[in-house]
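Lab notebook, bench 4. Still working through the backlog of constructs that have no structural model yet. Next entry is a single chain of 265 residues. Request: give me the structure tokens for it.
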Amino acid sequence: MTYQWRTCPSDVKHFVAHLQRGISEILYNEYVGFYLHGSLAMGGFNPLSSDIDVLVVTKTSLVVAIKRELAKFFLVCSHSPFPVEISFLNEEQLNNWQHPCPFDFHFSEFWRASYEKDLANGTYHVLNDARKTDADLAAHITVTRHRGIGLKGKPIDQVFPVIPRADYVASIVNDYQECLERIEEDPIYCSLNLIRVFWYLKEGVIASKQEAGNWGLLTFPEEMQRTVKKVVACYTKEREAYSFEKDELMALKNYISNHIQSLNE
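Model written out:
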């Protein structure tokens, strides 16, 4: 079963409250706001597999000492029990928008080993003050403005700029290209992401992965619907509920890529 913030179980809300408190204690008076995006904000959050997606905004850039404290905090709380994907941006970065967007700190499980190594060895290979950018932030901020939930601080429309459509499209198409290549490796995420990019490019709809899957069930040809139904079932229930054949994934991938190509002609 999947949820949105209003309907999610109490343990999810308690976990998010713990995140807020911990971050607030580390940032002190630098806090501008804490904002949910992704599946927990839009619907489709699966406690068994979904990340908690968050953007945090601060008044000024974070110093390295604060980044290291944040890394220690997330290494303990992320995946206990829910994985966290979170980015920290400051007001100057948002007020002077550029794509790809600069950011101060990011944590996801992908970075766990690198942060653990830096902290254990007292090194600064990744936890440093080097300028970093992330093309995905154009998509995250757009989703936050359209579907996000502000849980602390200033209202969303006072914090986040309107992202130019070209930057948003560049952001989602970058992920789309990766999903074309990785659909056999991760059929659930990649299939749903391909569908939602297609939906946006075709009709301008900013959707969750679950909403995109449901749209595919309603609009895709009958020969594709069996695959989409399996993908949606795996996403909303158990990820291993069904297996996928290469031929069916290639058919879905080709159907979407061909239609997106025709939209650009």
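Notes after review: The domain at 10-161 is CATH 3.30.460 (Beta Polymerase; domain 2). The longest helix spans residues 10-27. Flag for follow-up if needed.
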